[in-house]
Amino acid sequence: MAALDRNYHHGDLRSALLEAALATVENDGVAALSFRQLARIANVSPGAPYHHFRDKNALLASLAKRGFEALHAELETSCSSGSDPVLCLRALVDSYLRFARTSPKLYNLLFLPEVARPENLDLIEPDAMICFNRLKDALGRLDTQAGEDDLHERALTVWSLLHGLVSLLESGPLTRSMSGQAGADLAARSAMKLALA
Q: What's the rounded Cα separation, in Å, for the pair 140 and 87?
C-alpha cells in the first residue's frame, strides 16, 4: 500500500486528508470536495475518511478551524502591544482584508452555514473568538474608558463592516468599479472611520 495509507495506521491520515481538502478548496472551491476524491488523493479506501470526520460538514468545520487559526496568525503579526493604537487597528484591518483577498475560498468557507451548525461550534468557536477578541482588544486600546459590552458591540460592528465590504467587493455590485487594492483601501478607510467615530 502507499505511504499515506501506512501512515493512516500511525494516526497521520487525518492531517493528510485536511491538507488535501484545503488544497482542493483553495484550487477548486468547496463544491469540489468529496470524501471519495480525498480518499483517492490519500490512496486509502473510500470509507477511511469517515474514521476521522463524521460527514462533509465535520470536515468543513475542521477546515474552518484551520482557517480561523490562519486568520489569527495573520492578525497576530500585524502589530505589537506597544505600537500606536490607531496604527495597530489599521494594521489589523489591513491584515484581515489581505487574508480575505489572498485566500478568498478559505475565507468564504469560514462563514458557510454548514460550518456554523450547532454540532460544529465547539470546534470552531474558540478560534473564531480569538480573532474577534484581537479586534476587540485593539478597539479597547483606542478607548480605554469603554466598557466590555460597548467594546463587544464595536468589534462586532467593525467585523460586520469588513465582512460585508469583502462580500460586496468579491461578488456584489462593486466588483467592477472597486476591485483590488482600491477596494481594500476603501474597506480599510470605512472600517477605521467607524472604529474612530
A: 14
C-alpha cell, 52? 476521522
pLDDT in tens, 139-162: 998 888 989 999 999 999 999 989
Average pLDDT over residues 26-50: 89
Assigned fold of 60-196: Tetracycline Repressor; domain 2 (1.10.357)
pLDDT tens figures, 177-195: 666 666 667 777 877 787 7
- Domain coordinates in residue numbering, the chain: 3-51, 60-196
Q: State how far the Cα of 62 lies from the Cα of 120, in Å rounded to an integer.
A: 9
Task: With H, G, I as helix, E, B as strand and everything else as coil, classify residue 178.
Answer: coil
The three grid cell numbers given for residue 100, joined into one nine-digit string:
480575505
Q: Which grid cell is 168?
A: 460586496
- Alpha-carbon distance 156 to 124, whole Å? 17
Over 71-138, what HEC string results?
Answer: HHHHHHCCCCCCCCHHHHHHHHHHHHHHHHHHCHHHHHHCCCCCCCCHHHHHHHHHHHHHHHHHHHHH
DSSP-derived 3-state class of residue 189: helix
CB 120 within 8 A of CB 77: no
Rg of the chain over all Cα atoms, to the nearest angstrom: 19
Backbone CA torsion sign across 80, 106, 114, 13: negative
